[in-house]
Amino acid sequence: MIELLNVSKRFGDGVPIVALADVDLKVEAGEFVVVLGPSGSGKTTLLNMVGALDNPSEGTIIVDGVDISNATRRQLFDFRRNTVSFIFQSFNIFPGLTAAENVQFGADAAGRGDEVNPAEILAAVGLGDRVDQFPHELSGGEQQRVAIARALATGNPVMLADEPTGELDFVTGVQILELLQKQAADGRAVLVVTHNREISRVADRVVELSSGRIVSDGPPVGGKASLSELHW
Amino acid sequence: MKDWFLILRWSWRDLRKYWVKVIAIALVIGIGTGAYAGLTSTANWRRDSNVASMELLNMYDVRFELATDSSVPVGELAAAASGIEHAGWIEGTVERLIRPTQVDASTGTETVLVPGEIVGVDVTNGGPAINGWHTATGDGLTVADAGQPVVLLEEGFAFHNDLAKSGMITVSGGVELEYKNTAMTPESFIVVPENTTSFAQGTYAGVFTSLETAQRLTGFDGGVNDLILTVGAEADRDVVATEVKNAISDLGVGVNTILREDDPSYRLLFEDVENDQEFFNIFALLIFVGAVMGAFNLITRLSEAQRREIGIAMALGVAPRKIALRPLLVGAQIALLGVVFGVGVGLLIGNLMRSVLDTFLILPVWLTDFQWSLFFWVAVVGFVVPFAAAAYPVWRAVRVKPIEAIRTGHLAARGGGLAPVIKRLRLPGDTFAQLPFRNLLRAPRRAVLTALGIAAIMAVLVGFLGAIDSFLGALDRGTAMVEGSSPNRMVVSLETVLPSDHPAVAAIEEAESVEFAVPVLQIGARADGVEELDLLVEVLDLSNDMWQPALTAGSLESGVDGLILAEVAADDLGVEVGDSLSVTVPVRSGDSSFRFVEADLIVAGLHKSPIRFNAYMDDAALSLLGADGLANVVYANPGPGFTSGDVQRELFSLEAVGSVQKATATADDLDDLMAQFVGILQAVAFFVLLLAVLMAFNSASISFEERQREHATMFAYGVRVRKALRMAVIENLTIGIVATVIGFGGGLWMLWWVVNITAAETMPEIGLLVELSPATLVTVIVLGVAAVALAPLFTARRMRRMDLPGTLRVME
Ligand SMILES: Nc1ncnc2c1ncn2[C@@H]1O[C@H](COP(=O)(O)OP(=O)(O)O)[C@@H](O)[C@H]1O
Ligand SMILES: [Mg+2]
Q1: Using an 8 Å Cβ cutoff, are B97 and B71 in contact?
Q2: DSSP state of B595
Q3: Quick one: which of B95, B114, B326, B652 is 20 to 30 A from B130 by CA?
Q4: Helices marked H in B618-663 — which ranges?
């Protein structure tokens, strides 16, 4: 579903900052992958390139059969509309729209506004009773659930989440991760970025980045853990 | 100390980020203050220029005019003056011979046949020492020209008739004269010949020459009939005037005394200043207020964008004073630049006004320095407003809990506003259709302020363009009425009142080039209603075949024994059709004597002309006034194949004919006058248009920044730039429509005010109606709705180039 071949990303000219160096990565549909690494290790850069928000300096990125490292602007818009859906650390849900409307927006953006019932999706993320609230009437965790529901409403096969738990407390964060994990179980490819090693233990597969390079790829160190086993 | 440096450096970065907006908002303020300074400066300019021009040409203090047709030998008037008790108070005297004449200044293409006067003075020193002659090149008459057929032609007359700077004219008696140059003189700065109520610069010719030439041309050998003098600063002018008058009377001639400020040219020159100014002051103020409101709104929004940072600073315990510094520095940059632009725009509009004044007023000296004193106060306001506008959001922010200020972002962008109110009110369409309206309702205060800022400028625009329309409309109505069914009608003024069956009148009727002639008695009348008005009543046979006034109320049939008034006159007098009105009319009782007849006349109708003093009556009503069968004017229609020039030429040679003008001549003059005025308005309207465009652009640009994160999120979801733009356009369209509706309402109110209050006070003789042309409507709607709506398209490039990862990551 997601395939990165020799991907590098440098910022700036003169003496460039190497954000990613020679990254090879393959993620299949139905996989739930956590990208772990300290701050500045290139996690966001990686995610942004998979989501076609940014383009690599070198290498090839193929997502859902589309080579997005060699695509036109128009193709990239189509790709973002129909292939990936984003969840941001800072939620970025529209303050002028209610929870349900934010979810509806996701469906509208992907051109499937009529096929989706926002209330159902909100219920699925545990917000069945907050359908008509505005973002400012919701807690951070609830807002992030709305953001996930919005991503789900797009129906896109790839879900990208950059530090989705970054602004949340530990318990809420784990709940959000479980929610994302469930989406992988439904057949999506889910790529989640975090710097929190403890949280990464809920994943089947952890890709660890350091200074722009993949330093390990496999099951979490110390084995997969359930929510109750995590320490906080 | 170090932290202040940090703030300064930070502000430098703010400036680099905001510089386009800083310039654009400063331009808004600059236009507001500059237009104010430019428009209001003219009064000072004109006053200063009037005084300086009078001084340069040494305008008389007192003038003594001998009775018609009388004269005394050269030297006697001056001797009479120097013989008075307080002769020491007199600084100088000039004896003159002034006689009416007719002037033919026709060029190959244009017939110019007008009444005028010959003014002769001693030219030993190149011209008179009092009421001097000013020529642009400095070449006047010299002692060598004394007695020669050489003259100077009055500048305004030459200018209005497009005559060359030198050439030939013919005066009464068929004498050809060479005019060496054109000249200005204080009595001709504004030309108001007797019995003429309007501006007549182009239809009255001043011919300035040596005393000897004047005497020869008029047959007053060795005689003078006019004395002008100036007095010293310490003198009691009235005493001098009385003593000289008595001394001249002792010579056995009738004499009329005119003081400087009673001189028509002098009086009108200064009165005009005040009236014009009141008018421009209103517009200047409107533009200024509109611009200030607009700038306030824009700067507030600019500063509001830092609200979150303000909250963070508050949370860190920074003093509000220091927090306010950054927004205030942006305000300061705008303020300073605004003042600079203000001077620039002021100079530009000033130049424009000067060029218009220059061609429309004949003055030798123009003092048009930038009026710093006028600019100062608006500049102070223009300077303070950016600070106030920048500080206002800080003030609002420091009054709430820091957390609320910080939480303006994603956490709780006070999604509030009016949004909850319409929560259940589903608009049709998908979320893309909802978002623009939700965004507006989410921040209703900002939306309303923005709409008001644009509305203020739209209102000024409507007021402005509407005023232009109303003026042009009045001109059109006036011209249409004068032309009527006989657009080529000529107005032949007789030198005296004659019986309508006098051979001189018959001669006009029988002239070869004249098809029809209608005798008319033109009399001054005073109507006594709610207020007293002077009317110029034209009495004629209203059932004539040539021309009748066009009526808007009443009818000519019922008008047989009634008065037909201008609408504005009826308004001012407080009468309607059918009411009775007391009118005092002077009627000639002998050769040169008047008596006044008071009569109650019925208002029989209202005519279309905007000129208040024009009134008409059927000649059947003359008997009421005991003055039937008289005429001092004849309307004459050129026959087929004859031009107005032919009629002028033929009738001018007739005895008793004083002048022959096209009926539209006055209207044409008025047209010229108004064209200048409208020209100024149009030029200023351009700046108002620029203001509106600047507002729309700034507003869209600031909106773009406010929405940057939302746009980035949309783009991350694959929403096309086109679609995001469409949403921004819809949002602005809504604001534009609201702003245009409010602006239109406000503009109509302003226009009503300008037409019915300001114009009614400053130009009472012209009846304006509130008029808006389709072109104005289209301009305003296109600008208000389309320009505001389309302004976001300017941000298309920035949207397309948006750094998505950066924008999405950055909190605010
Ligand atoms: N727009 C940019 N310009 C320059 N350097 C950048 C930019 N974005 C990221 N970087 C650099 O790339 C590296 C990786 O950044 P990022 O992917 O955001 O790290 P992470 O998400 O793992 O914290 C960092 O060293 C960062 O400084
Ligand atoms: Mg990151």
Answers
A1: yes
A2: E
A3: B114
A4: 644-652
Query: How would residue A4 be classed by pLDDT, with cut points 50, 70 and 90?
Result: very high
Mapped onto helix, strand or coil, the DSSP state of residue B724 is helix
Q: What is the pLDDT of residues B335-382, one digit of tens each?
A: 999 999 999 998 888 888 888 777 777 889 888 888 888 888 888 888
pLDDT class of B207 with cuts at 50, 70, 90: very high
Residue B533: closest CA among B582, B499, B496, B493: B582
Residues of A in contact with B714 (CB under 8 A): 109
Region of A55 (left: φ > 0; alpha: ψ -120 to 50; beta: rest) is beta
Three-class HEC string of A118-180: HHHHHHHCCCCCCCCCCHHHCCHHHHHHHHHHHHHHCCCCEEEEECCCCCCCHHHHHHHHHHH
Given an 8 Å threshold on Cβ–Cβ distance, is A51 in contact with B717? no
Ligand 1 atom closest to the CA of B803, numbered from 1: 1
Q: Which candidate, B811, B728, B743, B730, places its Cα nearest to that of B783? A: B743
Q: Which residues line ligand 1 (CB under 6 A)?
A: A 11-12, 17, 19, 37, 39-45; B 806
Nearest-CA neighbor of B225 among B77, B413, B33? B77
State the Cα–Cα distance between residues B170 and A210, nearest whole angstrom.
105
- Distance from CA of residue A44 to its chain's centroid? 10
- Selected for mutation to probe chain A from B404, B410, B708 (highest A CB count within 10 Å) is B410
Q: Please check whether residue B799 touches A, CB under 8 A.
A: no
CA dist A20 and A214 (Å) reads 9
A59-74: per-residue pLDDT in tens?
999 999 999 988 888 8
Q: What is the 3-state secondary structure (H, E, C) of B553-588?
A: EECCCHHHHEEEEEHHHHHHHCCCCCCEEEEEEEEE
Distances (CA, A) of A219 to A4, A197, A231: 20, 12, 18
Note whether A109 contacts B416, CB cutoff 8 Å. Answer: no
Measuring from atom 21 of ligand 1, which residue has the nearest CA? Answer: A44
3-state secondary structure A2-17: EEEEEEEEEECCCCCE
Q: Which amino acid is it at B484?
A: G
Of A13, A34, A44, best ligand 1 pocket probe by most atoms within 8 Å of the beta carbon: A44
CA of A162 to the centre of ligand 2 (A): 7
- Find out whether B791 and B696 touch, Cβ atoms under 8 Å: yes
Q: Tokens at residue B4, please?
A: 């202040």
Residue with tokens 């021309």: B547
List chain A residues with CB under 8 Å of B419.
96, 134
CB of B414 within 8 Å of a chain A CB? The answer is yes
Which chain B residue has the Cα nearest residue A131?
B423
Q: How far is CA B793 from CA B77, B294, B301, B452, B698, in A?
A: 79, 21, 20, 22, 12
CA distances to A96, B263, B360, B363 from B269, in Å? 62, 10, 12, 10
CA dihedral B435, B437, B439, B445 (to 10 degrees): 180
Residue A142 makes CB contacts below 8 A (sequence gap 6+) with A99, A127, A130, A133
Measured from the Cα of A12, ligand 1's closest atom is 4
pLDDT in tens, B29-57: 999 999 888 888 888 888 999 999 999 99
> How many A×B Cβ pairs under 8 Å?
114
Tell me, in angstroms, the distance from the centre of ligand 2 to residue B564's CA. Answer: 87
End-to-end Cα distance, chain A: 34
Classify strands B72-73 and B62-66 as parallel, antiparallel or unpaired.
unpaired
Structure tokens at B162: 């497009």
Maximum distance among all alpha carbons in chain A? Answer: 54
Q: What is the ipTM of this complex?
A: 0.85
Q: What is the mean pLDDT of residues B239-250?
A: 94
Token pair listed for A198: 């403890």
Cβ distance of B717 and A90 shorter than 8 Å: no
